[in-house]
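User: I'm curious whether this sequence folds into something compact or stays loose and floppy. Could you predict its structure so I can see for myself?
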Amino acid sequence: MFDPEVLGFTPDELALNRQGQMSARQRQTLWYHQVGYLVRGVAMMILNLILISYLMPRLEQAMHKALLGVIVVLVMIIAGYLIIGFYRTWSPVVHTVTGPLTIGGSEQSPRLHIGSLSLRISRRAWRRLEGTYPGPFRVYYSPAGDLLSLEPWNEP
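Assistant: Here's the prediction. I'll summarize afterward.
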């Protein structure tokens, strides 16, 4: 039998998630998960901008200018990922999906699979869960792929 308490969310948080909202604790957890992503992205942007400013005055050959173009494109891609990361962090939305529940991943990357969707869960919860659970489940998750809560689902 499935025990939702294993995953560390409360009945109040489940009720908020059903309404499309997050609890203060869930928003804080989402923030902490995204901070590392955002810090790495900003650091990568700064390092690439330093590299571009260093290379600009030294470019003489067409091949060097093409290489600079590749670096600029990479900086733009990183900037796009950062914008997405900032949006996910400061504008949290609750998404839902319904389907069969399977535990996957590894100790280093614990995952919960529901249909084709893969969500991050804590290592502690991953260790305490079984491989599969019968019946459909409704899962509430953040756009960043973090599990917020879940419940057994019976079609109304």
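Summary: The first helix runs from residue 11 to 18. The longest strand covers residues 95-105.
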